[in-house]
Amino acid sequence: MLPVIALVGRPNVGKSTLFNRLTVSNDAIVADVPGVTRDRQYGYGRLGSRACVIVDTGGLVDKPVGIETEMRIQTERAIAEADVLVLVTDARSGLTHQDQACAQLLRRSGKPVLLAVNKAEGADRDMAAADFQVLALGKPYAISATHGSGCKELLELALEAAPPREAEEAESDQQAIRVAVIGRPNVGKSTLVNRLIGDERVIASDIPGTTRDSIFVPFERDGRRFVLIDTAGVRRRSKVDDMIEKASVARTLQAIDAAHVVIMVLDAHDTVAEQDASVLGLALQQGRALLIAINKWDNIPLEQRDDIRRQLDLRLDFVPYAPQFFISARHGSGVGDLVVAAIRAYEAAMREMPTPKLTKTLERAMEQHQPPLVRGRRIKLRYAHQGGRNPPRIIIHGSQAASVPEAYKRYLANVYREQYELYATPVQVEFRSDTNPYSRKSLMPGGKPKRWTQSEKRGEQRGGKRK
Question: From CA 146, how far away is CA 154, in angstroms rounded?
Fold first, then answer.
């Protein structure tokens, strides 16, 4: 499972800017006004082959009032679910009593804490960090989230500080199909999991907002081994009058990353909410094979079903490759088709595609629709090979390949999806331009010497000097 790294600190120290930098996105709203971030914001971070979940939080204040109280609750939840905490401070403002209060809260968590001194651009790093030594959180790391300096090193330290996770026994079975069941609270995820495994393994409740940590449930069906990754268990707080804990988005992101196939469960009685679209976008970002299960279909009157189908097609048009299944997890109708589809989606996501066949498919696609002209020159695509699986990744080489427009990229992705029956999975098509081996830009230090042109050679013969 991916480590979870939470960014915590007082208002307006640059947590959202750092979040956008680490996730290579613009998902978090950035402004000079404190208090813009209120709810937790989640995203994927990556450093080389290592990935993690980054959590942005609202600003912490000493004595919260009004909306600040809710922001503090959200931040405390982020601290509870995180593996590593990063306290973000402001080098320009220097150490404040609010920084000290934040440090005290993080120390009480007992989790690894890194101290990031942000907005240190243009200043001596040692001087910028010196004031924050008194927080006793270890070495302060001066960074600039706006310019990116020090951010890569900070992420590397956070990944190293993350405690090793114990491997699940079922997860180690490389032959099993890992299926993540995700969705909003109270859409029937736990009921679906129990129906798939044929046992009341996971507690199901009609109360929305129930959750527990992701669990791995191995089972066998139709002669195939599966591992269900469920995020829909129940965990109540000790106080009866306490609010039921909300589903952890971090656990959902971890489940998506660990899975081969993602089943997104929707309630047929509800519209597709912004939260649904956001989670689907994360599954799309990770390139996972995706199935959409519209649950509680048995309770929908016949005269309303066509209208619901049209609304779903309209709202889910950004994932056109994801098939829809209308099921009843409680009664089992349609669940068998979902299992067959999960096997088919897994086989598509893990399919091997030989280079000669990929190149032949590329040639046929260009015969039907030639690449466009760029600055009066035709884009030439020469060959293709497979660059990875889950999702299928196809790398195409050619001249001016970096200039291929998005419409032609989608055309080629659809051609490969149809040709290789890449069911329910996105296809990632990457383009790499051929480089001139004799150009100055292509030469690396210690490489072969430059080949001179005829005019340069003639200049040397006349006594001129090579430049």
Answer: 14
Q: What three-state secondary structure class fits 420?
A: coil
Q: How far apart are CA 141 and CA 132, in angstroms?
A: 10
Alpha-carbon Rg of the chain, whole angstroms? 26
| b (16+ CB within 10 A) / e for 435-452 | eeeeeeeeeeeeeeeeee
At residue 129, the 3 state secondary structure works out as helix
CA angle 93, 97, 99 (to 5 degrees): 70
* Cα–Cα distance, 311 to 304 (Å, whole number): 11
Q: At 364, is the secondary structure helix, strand, or coil?
A: helix
Looking at 4-127, which runs of residues are DSSP E strands? 4-8, 41-47, 50-56, 84-90, 113-118
CA dist list (Å): 157 to 98, 103, 160, 239: 24, 18, 5, 37
**What burial class does residue 360 get, using C-beta atoms within 10 Å of its C-beta: 0-12 exposed, 13-18 middle, 19+ buried?**
middle
pLDDT tens for 124-178 read 888 888 889 999 999 999 999 999 999 999 999 999 999 876 544 434 456 799 9
Q: Answer whether the bond into residue 140 is a cis peptide, omega within 30°.
A: no
Using CA of residue 410, residue 412, residue 418, residue 423, what is the dihedral sign? negative
- 441 neighbors 435 (Cβ within 8 angstroms): yes
Within 8 A by CB and 6+ apart from 317, the residues are none
Its pTM surpasses 0.85: no
Contact indicator for 189, 232 with CB cutoff of 8 Å: yes
Q: Could you count the other beta carbons within 10 Å of the beta carbon of residue 39? A: 13
> Is residue 449 a contact partner of residue 437, using CB atoms and an 8 Å limit?
no
